[in-house]
Each structure stands twice: as C-alpha cells, then as structure tokens.
Amino acid sequence: MAFSVAGSAAEPWQKWRVDASNHPQRWLNTTQEWIQTYDRERQFRDLALAYAIRVEALRYSGDEDHVQDAIEEGLRFAKLADYPTATSLLRINQGWYFIQRGMLKRAASSAIYAIEAAKDADNSNLIIEAEILQAQVFHESGDVARALEILEALEQQRYSDLPRLQMEFHGLIGAIYLEIGAYDIALQHMHDTLSIAQQHLGDWDVSVAQYNLGRAYSLTSDYQKARQYFNQALASSRKIDDQLGIAYALQRLAEIEDTQGNEQRALQLIERALPVFKAAGAHPMEAQAWLAKSEIHLEQQQIISAEQTLQAAQSLINTLNDTKLLQRLYELQSRLFQQQQDYQQALAAYQQSVDYLLQHQQTLQNKQIQEIMVRLEIREQEATNELLQKENQLQQLQLQEQRTSNYLMLWLLFSGAAIVLLISYFLYQQMRARRRYAELALKDDLTGAPNRRAIVRQCQLGLEAVAHGQHQLALAVVDFDFFKQINDSFGHDVGDAVLQRFAEVTQDCLRSQDKFGRLGGEEWLLVLYDATEQDAELIFNRLLNRINEHPIRGLPESYRITFSMGFATATASDTFETLYKRADDVLYDAKEHGRQRLKIAPAAAVASD
C-alpha cells in the first residue's frame, strides 16, 4: 500500500491510542478521570471519545469483561453528541471484539456501522481502518476474494500516513498469503508489520506482530524461529500485563512443544491458557486449545480424557462458523473412534474431515483470488512460486488422504469379513448421502433449524416478491439477553439447550408461510409475510411465553429466558442488507433500553431507505 510513515498529521486521539498500547493501565486511569469529569459537566462529545480510548486500553490490558459495556456506553454518548468520529472508533473496536469471539455476523454489522460513521465524519484514516476491519471479517468468514477486493481498492484509491493502518494492511495481506501457501510473500509482509510496530507503535501492537510472525514460521515448520517470536510476543504481553496476549503466546508454544514430543510440557501450557480464553470469551482460541488438548490425550491413548475434551470442543465449535475447526474436530474424532475400534464411525468422521478440508481448499483455489493477487503487484516469479507451492500443497494433501484411506482400509480388512461388509454398505450409502449434503448445508448443526445461508436466501426470495408487488414482508432480528451469563454460569451445554428450545418453539409458533433461521451465536432471523406491527407483538409475546413454559435441563426452574427483537417492514427497493440494518438498528435500541422488549422500525425510517 502506498503509505509513507513520515510526517504523520494524526489527530491527538490517534497519538493517545499509540500511547495506550504502551501504557494501558495509565490510560485506564486517565480515561476514568475524564469520564467522571465530562459526565459531571455533561460534555457528551468528550465523554464519547474518552470511552473510545478506554475501550482500546481495556483491549490492550486483556480486560475483555468490560469492553462491550464500555462500547455501549460510548455509543450512547456519541449518539447524544452526534459525534461520528467516536462512533466509528467504538464500532471498529466492537468489530475486533466480536471477531475474537467468532461472532462474525455481528462483526460484519459493526464494520458497516464503522464505515458509515467514518464517512459521516469525513475522516479518510477512519474509513481506511474500518474497511480493513471489514476485509478482516470477510477473511475470517472464508470469503478471501471479497477481502482481497477491499484491500485492492484501498491500494488504488486511498492514502494514509498512519503507521497503524500500514501495520493492519500488511498484517492482513500477510495472513491471506500465508493461508494459500505463498510463504515468502507472507513473511515479507509480516516482517514489514513488525518493523512498523517497533518503530512507530506501542508494545501491544508489537506483541501482535511478533505473534503473527511466530504463526507464520510455525506453519512453515521453522519451529526454532516460531518459538523465538512467540517468546518475544509473550515478553511484550507480560510487559503490559495483557493476560489474553499471554494466553495466545502460551497456546502456540504448547503446539510447538507437542510437535517436538514434549507432551506434558504442552499440556501444562494449554492448562494455563485455556481458562483465560474461556473467561475472555475468545471462543475460536478456546476451541483450538480444547482440540490441542484432545490430540495430546489421543497420542497418549487416554481415550476417556480424549473423549471428554472432544465433547467440550464440539459443543463450542458448533456455535462457530469455522470450516478449519470443523475439519480438525472430525479428524480427531476419527482417531478417537479408531482407538475405540469403532471403524464405521471412524471412517464416517474421516470422510467429513476430508469434505471440510476440500471445501476450504476449493475456496482458496477461487480464480478471482488469484487475479486480484496479480493486480496487487506480485512479481511474476513470486506468483509462479506461489502456484508451485500450492500445487505441492495439494499433492501432499492428496498423498496424505490416500495414505490415511489406505491405512483405514487395511485396518478394516484385517478386522474380518464383518468389517468388509460394513465398508461395502458404507460405499453403497455414499450416493444417497451426497443427496443429503445439499440439505445439510442449509441446516444449523446444533439446532436443526435453517442456517444463515438458508434464511438469508429465504429473505431475498421474499424481497423479490415484494419488488413485484406480490406480498408484503417484514424482518425480525432476535437476540437473547445475557446469553453469555447462561454459558458462563451453567455451561455451554445448557446454552445449546436454550438455542434448541428456541428453534422448537419458533417452528411451532410461526405460520406455515413464515420462515426462520439461525444467523450464528444466539442471533436469529424471522422472515414474516404480510405481518403487521400487531402481529409482531403477538409473535414476540408468544415466543417469550412458549420458551419459558417448561424448565430447561441445567437451568433453575425459576430462571426466565428473555430476548429482544427488532422488527422492520420491507419496501420495494430494499435489499437484504438494508432491511437487516433497519431491524438490527432497532434491536440495538431495544438492548439499550432495558432488553426483553420489541422495537419496531418507524415508518419514516422505512420510507427513507
């Protein structure tokens, strides 16, 4: 990206952010004093900015428990002051907060809000930062082509002299190249990222750059350099007492220890990192920790322990939309079934693992991705090397798959004629199973309800009918109140049971023409045909009463589950994104005004879209 770090004309708050990266505790104290003063003097504009800086200091210190509360307070004052700069800063941090928890749908919404606010503020640096966040969300969601399109547009159309934006741009580009196997280019970008952070940014930014370099060298199997950079990241995180950053580094060091045969040392490091991930709600990293622990138990043939840790991992991974985590989960489950001598289940789990792996590889082979890379000024030789590396990677993948398949088949043959017949039956069933895959791809694994892809498609079909004057359509976004408390207090299994109950009662309560589906996490979407505002109130109250009719196992009988709902009526010009945004806006309003309530987008707001 055509950035120059010299002569940065950053706003004062940009400098505060850099200093907060070095001294998060100092800025927690400073912003607390500011908040008390500005609150007393009713200076809402300054109050909103104080909360924005405080949110970053909380993230830098690893204090994730208070981040979202501070964001919500800051957004409230930014709205009162009509201060889009603070709104964009807060939404950017909210997006990173959701990404860290695997809540990609919410992260995407935060990125959109951040971009809109940055444009309202006419602040080019904030626009770039918000668009990089949006690209990061697409990358995390597996849509690498969309991520690269955004980065390419930034390369061609926008300019900034802020080192922070240089770092984020090079870091994301490096992560994408790393994922597709272009290791040389990835390492170059990541070394640039570390150099920028060390020269111009704070300790937290340096620790992130060191951690990313450690990940890059780990994936290239250069474990000596990987250990070096992870230890540097660990030291940088300890310097500012960033407990979450410490846990990230410990988890990666544990993986290296396991790779080199030091299983007990690896387990010790994982045990130190796992509670931090759980307490911070860093669900993807928590899932990786459970999987790493499961793999060690399998290596030690501790079948009961492996089964327990895999169950914990599966419960968590089912709430995320991460193909790579699912692939590894099923791979480890296949190994567990082999150790239990359940060869039918082993082969089925192995096939699912391969399906997810091929699905991920297919995404990375997208021709559009390659074209954008070339346009991002990759030299011809580097592009050639990249293709060779990918071809080699695919050959290794196919070889590994063939070896594993041969190993399983040999095992099955030696197990006797009964197992041979079982495999024959499995092969016979494959053709029938393929027909079910299309249906399963549109269902949520945990609840059996339609998943995000299915319900968004249903809404788009309904909007086409609205555009042709055939129907009226309304969209309702439902989000559980205090769902994190249920998971933290009673366990993820109970949280899963709550989501399953909601799917059951919604199926019973809606009319046959209405549709519903799970967007992800605890967020649901209802597509309602010819529904009025009075219908919305009836549906809201009916769902609220039905979900609490019978106690859910694991919850006290007196515990009342609540949720909030945002409702918006479609117009003929609506797209899914515009309709969803209106419903989501009033959902946030419902959350801010006490929760357990329905908020309806006013007619004037609908007409303006």
From TrEMBL:
GGDEF domain boundaries: 471-603
Enzyme class: transferase
InterPro entries: Diguanylate_Cyclase, GGDEF_dom, Nucleotide_cyclase, Rev_trsase/Diguanyl_cyclase, TPR-like_helical_dom_sf, TPR_rpt
Organism of this sequence: Idiomarina aquatica
Coiled coil regions in record: 366-400
GO BP terms, alphabetized: cell adhesion involved in single-species biofilm formation; negative regulation of bacterial-type flagellum-dependent cell motility
Catalytic reaction(s) noted: 2 GTP = 3',3'-c-di-GMP + 2 diphosphate
SUPFAM superfamilies for the chain: Nucleotide cyclase (SSF55073), TPR-like (SSF48452)
SMART domains the UniProt entry points to: GGDEF, TPR
Keywords, comma-separated and alphabetical: Coiled coil, Membrane, TPR repeat, Transmembrane, Transmembrane helix
Transmembrane portions of the chain: 408-428
E.C. no: 2.7.7.65
Protein name, as recorded: diguanylate cyclase
UniProt GO molecular function: diguanylate cyclase activity
TPR repeat placement: 207-240
